Description:
51% of the residues lie in helices and 16% in strands. It has 3 helices and 2 strands. α2 packs antiparallel against α3.
Amino acid sequence: ITIVEFFDYRCPYCHAAAEWAFNVIRARRDVRFVFKEFPVLGPESLEASRAAIASIPQGRYREFHRALMAHRGD
């Protein structure tokens, strides 16, 4: 099973769904989760998306993604 999530770090609905996504990742080994950056809510979204993508070579994407999704406010 593959779940593809298109998200924006400034989207309140994406923030609300983030915990569910991490619960699925943690509980279901038969599910592959694909995160797709979709920064459409302004320049701050684009900056957050670029920072998250920059964390990939460091092996920190999931941790960084989770931190941004847990953050409240701009």
